[in-house]
Amino acid sequence: MLRFSIIFILNIVCASFMWANDTFLFQAEKEGDKIKIFGTLHDLPLQALPPAIMDYIQNHEVLITENTQALEPLTLNICEKMGLLRNSEEPNYYDCLIEAEKEELEAYAIPFLKHKQATNLGLDQLNTNGLYQAYLMGHFVTGMDYALLHHYKNHKLILGLEDLQEISQSFEQLTIHDLKCELYNHAGFGSEEHKRSENLYLSGDIPALEENDLMVQRRNLDWLPTLLNYHRQYGEKAIVCVGYQHLFGEFGILRLLEEAGYKIMRANQAIEFSDFSSFL
């Protein structure tokens, strides 16, 4: 009994310590208008978030996300628009993989296609971009972004900052060699660097981002007008939930909002906001 009590107390202490720092909930304020922004980590489960954050998100009527594609079935027509299908002149890239590569791909891509109700779509129909995107998204179907969308789809108005075509255009065209390298390295998932990133997120540390991530920069710049337009429509009824690495850096959403005249505040676990502008 004593041993159980000690373990129980240690679990409480460890859980409290894990979220001892400030959260990734931010507020951008300008002339009395407030935009609430929460940074997610795509592959972590929703249960990793502090209950206060979940309560805070729940209290908003409108959820603004990177996109709403998680809620939509993946059809052949959509895949064609996104440029994910191989044409008749291309080889069957799936057959170009060795058995170990196929197993790694299938472990994530097949559950993703099933999740997306893509019953008429086989891996042999996809080009290298299609295979990689299915593989990558397969890591996220149990993560907090998908969970937020599915949890609130019948309770909130859900809006996206980009459409499916814009998502796909963010990916550079991969060669079969690139795809094989990604599969061999498990796209970085499970690596020491990835584990360290998860721990840093849970401890509230700001990531050190490479400023030459052109894909993130381009998406952030494209998102900003849409984000501000949504805010004009819905005001404080809305909360923005996007990957937390989109928030920081020279072209991060927080910096872009600050340059537009907004004061940036950061929330702690008690949802008390304090000035964050000096960090930016």
UniProtKB/TrEMBL annotation:
Keyword Signal: yes
Pfam family, one: TraB_PrgY_gumN
UniProt name for this protein: Polysaccharide biosynthesis protein GumN
Lineage: Bacteria, Pseudomonadati, Pseudomonadota, Alphaproteobacteria, Holosporales
Signal peptide range: 1-20
Native organism: Candidatus Odyssella acanthamoebae
Superkingdom classification of source: Bacteria
InterPro entries associated with the record: TraB/PrgY/GumN_fam
Keyword Signal set for record: yes
Alphabetically ordered keywords of this record: Signal
